[in-house]
C-alpha cells in the first residue's frame, strides 16, 4: 500500500458524530451495487442507504443457436460467441444494468409479440436480482453498520417482499425508522412521470402519504427524509424537456430543460423542515439545494458508466447537520 | 397503485414492454427517452462552431501570423482535429452520462490533473469571453454605427461610431453588453439560448451577404473603393509597398502557415459540443462520430469559402501588408489610410445599397454577442462541475428556485468578463489572446491522452462499451492509437505556440504570471479542497477514488 493510500484511509476514520452514505438509482448495475456495499467500509459510514430504482430497465436477449453458439445484438453491435464468450457477453450486459436472457429463437419471437410474457420475464429477473443483491449484502455488510435498501418508482412491487424479508438489510419504505440520532422517513413513490412507472401517485395523494407517515411520529428526533423524488424546482430535478414521443426538445440549437420534481415533496420539506433530505430519480440532478433550514441532496447517478455517485453526510450527536461530501468512484 | 384525479393523461409512448431492437426488450422506466438523434446533435455542434461567427476573427489571425495564407491552415487543422473528434466519440461511448473534458480527465488521468484542466477551462473561457466583449466594443459596435451612418447618409451616426472606439467608451459599452446578457441569463437559460440562436441567424445572414459582396466584385472594384475611402489614389498599392519596405513578409512563408494551424484548429472549437449532453444522445459513439465530423466538414467549407472570397477581392499581399502595417507601424498605416483592417469593413466598402449595409451593421455585432452568450452558457456548466468537486465554493452551483437558473455561476462569469475586459482595454493584455491557442492545445491534449489511456485505466468500462473501431492497430486498442495521435498533434500545437514568437508575441513578466495563474489555480484549489475535506473526516482523494466492488 502506498503512503498516499494510507493517509487517505487515515483521514476516512477521523470522523465525529453519526455518518451516513447514500447512493441511488443503480438500475441493475452489479458493479455499482458492489461498490455501494464497499462504501460503508471505505467511508466508515454508520449507515448506508440506497434510495431506490435498484432494478434494470431492459432485457438483452442472447439467442441460443445450439451447438454451443450464441448470438446477440447489443449496443448496436452484432456478436456471436461460444460458451466461453457467453460469460463475457453476459458480464458486459450486466455492467450496463441490463438483464441477459439466453433463449431459443421461438421464445424471443414470442417476446417480440407478447407484452405479458415480457412483463413476466422482467418480474422474474428483478426478483432474482433482489435475492442476489440482498444475499450479497447480508454476507458483506458488517453487523455494526446498518444497510437500508428502499424501492423507487421504477421498481416493481415484487422486490418489496424480498427486501423486507432479507437478512442483514432493512426495508424502510413507508416507515419512520430511528437511524442514529435521526428519524428517517422513507417514501419510494414518485409523482407522475411520462412513462407511467409502477409506483406513481398524484401530487395530492403523495403529500397525504407523507403526512400520514410524519404526523404520528412523536419520537422527537430531527427528521431525515429519504424520498426518492426531489422537490419541484430545486435544481435537483432539472431534466431535459420531452416532446410527446419522448424525444428531447431541441430549441435554438440547445436542449430545453424543465423541472420534474414533486410539489408534494417540496411542500413536505417546507412544512416539516427536516435537517437533511435525500433524493434520486433525476440522474442528472446531482447537487445540493437549500430549502429553508433543510439541506436537500441528490447525488445523481452514473450507473451505466459503472461509477457509483454517492453522498456522505455527518451529523452531530443531536442529529444536527455537520457537513457533507459528494463522492464518485 | 391508484391513479388520482390530478394525474394527467399519459402521452403517447412505448407500451409497457416493448421491443427496442431485435434483441433488446425495454420496459417503462424513467429516463428512457428517445434520445437526441444525429440531426439534432449536428445542429448543436454547428450552432456552436458557426463559422459565420468565427469568420469575424480572421483579421486578428492575419495580424498575429504575418506572412500566412489561411487556406492550408484551415485544411490541415481540420484533418488534425478529426482525431480529437474520434477520441471524443470513444469517450462518450464509454461514459455516456459524464461528458465534459474536466470529468474525462479527472476520472481517467487523475483528479489533480482534472482539477488543473477544469481551472484552465474556467479562466480561459472567462478570458475569451472578456476578449470577445472587447472586440465587440472596440470593433463591431463602432462598425455597426458606421455602417448605419453609410446606409442612412448620416455623418452623426458615422462619427458616433468613431467615438465609440475610444477606451472609455469601449469599456462602458462592454459593461452595458455584459449587464444586458447577465440580465437575460438570470431571467432564463432558455431566453439566453434564444438570443444566441437569433444572433447566429443574423451572423449567418451577414456571412452570406459578405461572401456575395466579395464574389460579385472584382479586385479593381475593391482597389478603387479603398483608394476612394482613403482619399489617396495610391493607398492600396502604397500599403503593399510600404509594408514590404518596412519588413513585412512579401510572400507566403511556410513557418507562418504552420504557426497559424493551431489558430485554425481553435476556430473549429464547438464542433464536439454534443459531447456535453451525451447522456441523451442516441447511440453516443456513432452519433458523436458522425455529427462532429459532419459539422467539421460544413465548418471547413464555410471558413474556406469566406476566406477565399476575401482573398479573391482584396488580394493576399494587400491583406498581409495591411494587417502587418496596422499592427507594427500604425503611423505609417495611418499616413496612407484610416480604414480598419476588418473583413466587415472591406465588405462595407463594396456594398452599394443601404439594405446590405444595414444587414452587415446588425450581423457582425450580433456575431460577437452570440460568442459571448455561448461563453456564459458554457461557463455555468464548468462552474457547476468545479463546485460539485469543491474546487469552487458550493454556493456557486446554487440554482434559483423560481427560474431554475444558476445565478451565482452566471454572476461569476460576468464578473470574470468585466475583469478581462478592463485588462484588455486598459493594458496590453490582448496579447493573451494568443495564449488561448496554448490553453486550447493543452486542454485538447489532456482529453486525447485520457482517450488513449482509457483501455488501460478503465478496462471494464472500455470492454463494456461499443468501440469506435474494432480489432487492434499496431497491437494496440484503436482508441489508444487515435488518442495517441491526437495527443501528439495537440502537444505539437502547444509547442508551436510556445516557441513561435509571432504567436506568443514574446514573453513578459505579466504574460508568464498570467499563464502560471491560469494553469496553477485549479491545482491550488484542488489541494485546498483536499485539506478542507480532510478536516471533515473524509479525504478529497477518497471522495473521488474508485471504490473496490465488494
Description of the molecule:
By secondary structure, chain A is α/β, with parallel strands linked by helices. Chain A has 2 domains: 262 residues, Purple Acid Phosphatase, chain A, domain 2 (4-Layer Sandwich), CATH 3.60.21.10; 59 residues, no CATH class. Chain A has a 6-stranded mixed sheet with strand order 8-9-10-15-17-16, covered by helices on one side. Chain A has a 5-stranded mixed sheet with strand order 7-2-1-18-19, covered by helices on one side. Chain A has a 4-stranded mixed sheet with strand order 5-4-3-6. In chain A, strand 8 and strand 9 form a beta hairpin. In chain A, helix 5 runs parallel beside helix 6 and helix 7 packs parallel to helix 8. Chain A is globular. The relative contact order of chain A is 0.15. The N terminus of chain A is likely disordered. Chain B is an all-alpha fold and 550 residues long. Chain B has one domain: Amino acid/polyamine transporter I (Up-down Bundle), CATH 1.20.1740. A two-stranded antiparallel sheet of chain B has the order 1-2. In chain B, helix 6 crosses helix 8 and helix 11 packs across helix 14. Chain B is globular. Chain B starts with 16 loop residues before the first strand and ends in a 7-residue tail after the last helix. The N terminus of chain B is likely disordered. At the A-B interface, helix 1, helix 2, strand 3, strand 4 and helix 3 of A face strand 1, strand 2, helix 1, helix 9 and helix 17 of B. Strand 3 of chain A pairs antiparallel with strand 2 of chain B, so a sheet runs across the interface.
Amino acid at each position: 500500500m502506498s503512503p498516499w493510500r494510507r493517509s487517505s484511509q487515515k483521514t476516512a476514520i477521523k470522523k465525529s458524530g453519526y455518518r451516513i452514505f447514500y447512493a441511488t438509482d443503480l438500475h441493475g448495475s452489479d458493479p455499482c451495487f458492489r461498490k455501494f456495499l464497499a462504501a460503508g467500509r471505505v467511508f466508515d459510514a454508520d449507515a448506508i442507504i440506497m434510495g431506490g430504482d435498484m432494478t434494470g430497465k431492459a432485457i438483452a436477449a442472447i439467442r441460443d443457436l445450439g451447438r454451443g453458439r450464441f448470438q446477440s445484438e447489443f449496443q448496436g453491435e452484432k456478436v456471436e460467441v461460444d460458451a466461453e464468450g457467453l460469460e463475457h457477453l453476459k458480464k458486459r450486459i450486466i455492467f450496463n444494468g441490463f438483464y441477459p436472457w439466453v433463449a431459443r429463437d421461438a421464445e424471443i419471437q414470442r417476446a417480440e409479440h407478447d407484452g405479458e410474457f415480457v412483463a413476466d420475464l422482467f418480474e422474474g429477473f428483478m426478483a432474482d436480482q433482489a435475492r442476489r443483491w440482498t444475499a450479497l449484502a447480508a454476507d458483506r455488510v458488517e453487523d455494526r453498520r446498518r444497510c437500508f435498501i428502499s424501492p423507487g418508482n421504477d421498481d416493481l412491487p415484487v422486490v418489496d417482499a424480498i427486501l423486507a424479508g432479507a437478512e442483514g438489510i432493512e426495508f424502510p419504505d413507508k416507515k419512520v425508522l430511528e437511524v442514529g440520532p435521526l428519524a428517517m422517513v422513507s417514501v419510494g413513490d414518485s409523482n407522475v412521470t411520462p412513462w407511467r412507472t409502477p409506483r406513481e401517485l398524484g401530487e395530492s395523494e403523495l403529500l397525504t402519504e407523507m403526512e400520514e407517515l410524519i404526523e404520528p411520529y412523536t419520537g422527537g428526533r430531527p427528521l431525515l427524509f429519504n424520498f426518492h423524488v426531489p422537490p419541484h424546482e430545486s435544481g435537483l430535478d432539472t431534466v431535459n424537456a420531452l416532446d410527446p414521443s419522448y424525444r428531447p426538445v431541441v430549441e435554438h440549437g440547445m436542449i430545453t430543460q424543465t423541472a420534474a420534481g414533486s410539489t408534494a415533496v417540496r411542500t413536505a420539506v417546507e412544512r416539516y423542515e427536516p435537517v437533511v433530505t435525500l433524493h434520486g430519480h433525476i440522474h442528472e440532478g446531482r447537487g445540493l439545494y437549500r430549502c429553508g433550514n433543510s439541506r436537500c441532496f441528490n447525488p445523481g447517478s452514473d450507473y451505466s458508466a459503472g461509477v457509483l455517485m454517492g453522498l456522505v453526510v455527518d451529523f452531530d450527536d443531536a442529529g444536527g447537520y455537520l457537513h457533507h461530501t459528494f463522492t464518485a468512484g | 397503485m391508484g391513479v388520482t384525479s390530478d394525474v394527467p393523461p399519459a402521452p403517447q409512448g412505448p407500451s409497457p414492454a416493448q421491443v427496442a431492437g431485435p434483441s433488446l426488450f425495454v420496459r417503462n422506466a424513467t429516463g428512457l427517452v428517445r434520445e437526441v438523434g444525429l440531426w439534432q446533435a449536428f445542429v448543436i455542434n454547428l450552432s456552436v462552431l458557426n463559422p459565420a461567427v468565427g469568420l469575424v476573427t480572421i483579421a486578428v489571425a492575419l495580424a498575429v501570423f504575418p506572412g500566412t495564407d489561411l487556406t492550408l491552415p484551415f485544411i490541415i487543422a481540420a484533418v488534425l482535429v478529426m482525431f480529437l473528434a474520434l477520441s471524443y466519440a470513444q469517450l462518450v461511448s464509454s461514459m455516456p452520462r459524464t461528458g465534459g473534458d474536466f470529468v474525462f480527465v479527472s476520472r481517467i488521468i487523475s483528479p489533480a490533473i482534472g482539477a488543473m484542466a477544469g481551472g484552465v477551462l474556467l479562466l480561459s473561457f472567462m478570458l475569451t469571453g472578456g476578449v470577445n466583449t472587447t472586440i465587440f466594443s472596440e470593433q463591431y459596435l463602432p462598425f455597426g454605427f458606421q455602417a448605419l451612418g453609410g446606409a442612412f447618409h448620416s455623418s452623426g451616426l458615422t462619427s458616433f461610431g468613431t467615438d465609440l472606439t475610444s477606451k472609455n467608451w469601449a469599456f462602458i459599452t462592454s459593461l452595458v453588453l455584459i449587464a444586458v446578457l447577465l440580465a437575460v441569463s438570470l431571467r432564463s437559460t432558455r431566453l439566453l439560448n434564444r438570443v444566441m440562436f437569433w444572433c447566429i441567424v443574423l451572423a449567418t445572414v451577414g456571412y452570406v451577404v459578405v461572401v456575395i459582396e466579395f464574389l460579385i466584385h472584382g479586385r479593381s472594384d475593391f482597389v478603387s473603393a479603398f483608394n476612394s475611402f482613403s482619399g489617396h489614389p495610391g493607398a492600396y498599392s502604397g500599403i503593399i509597398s510600404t509594408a514590404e519596405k518596412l519588413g513585412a513578409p512579401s510572400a507566403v512563408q511556410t513557418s507562418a502557415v504552420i504557426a497559424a494551424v493551431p489558430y485554425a484548429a481553435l476556430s473549429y472549437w464547438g464542433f464536439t459540443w454534443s459531447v456535453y449532453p451525451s447522456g441523451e444522445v442516441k447511440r453516443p459513439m456513432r452519433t458523436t462520430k458522425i455529427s462532429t465530423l459532419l459539422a467539421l466538414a460544413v465548418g471547413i467549407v464555410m471558413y474556406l469559402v469566406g476566406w477565399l472570397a476575401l482573398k479573391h477581392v482584396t488580394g493576399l499581399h494587400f491583406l498581409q501588408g495591411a494587417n502587418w502595417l496596422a499592427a507594427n507601424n500604425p503611423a505609417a498605416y495611418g499616413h496612407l489610410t484610416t480604414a480598419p483592417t476588418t473583413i466587415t469593413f472591406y465588405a462595407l466598402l463594396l456594398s452599394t445599397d443601404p439594405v446590405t449595409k444595414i444587414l452587415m451593421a446588425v450581423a457582425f455585432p450580433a456575431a460577437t454577442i452570440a460568442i459571448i452568450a455561448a461563453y456564459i452558457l458554457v461557463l455555468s456548466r464548468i462552474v457547476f462541475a468545479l463546485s460539485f468537486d469543491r474546487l469552487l465554493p458550493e454556493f456557486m452551483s446554487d440554482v434559483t428556485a423560481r427560474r431554475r437558473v444558476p445565478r451565482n455561476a452566471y454572476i461569476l462569469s460576468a464578473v470574470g468578463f468585466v475583469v478581462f475586459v478592463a485588462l484588455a482595454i486598459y493594458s496590453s493584455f490582448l496579447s493573451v489572446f494568443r495564449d488561448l491557442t496554448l490553453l486550447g492545445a493543452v486542454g485538447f491534449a489532456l482529453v486525447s491522452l485520457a482517450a488513449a489511456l482509457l483501455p488501460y485505466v478503465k478496462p471494464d468500462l472500455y470492454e463494456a462499451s461499443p468501440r469506435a473501431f474494432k480489432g487492434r492497430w499496431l497491437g494496440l486498442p484503436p482508441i489508444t492509437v487515435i488518442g495517441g495521435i491526437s495527443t501528439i498533434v495537440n502537444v505539437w500545437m502547444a509547442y508551436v505556440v510556445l516557441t513561435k514568437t509571432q504567436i506568443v508575441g514574446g514573453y513578459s513578466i505579466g504574460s508568464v504570471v498570467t499563464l502560471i495563474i491560469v494553469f496553477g489555480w485549479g491545482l491550488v484549489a484542488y489541494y485546498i479542497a483536499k485539506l478542507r475535506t480532510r478536516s471533515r473526516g473524509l479525504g478529497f482523494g477518497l471522495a473521488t477514488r474508485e471504490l473496490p466492488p465488494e
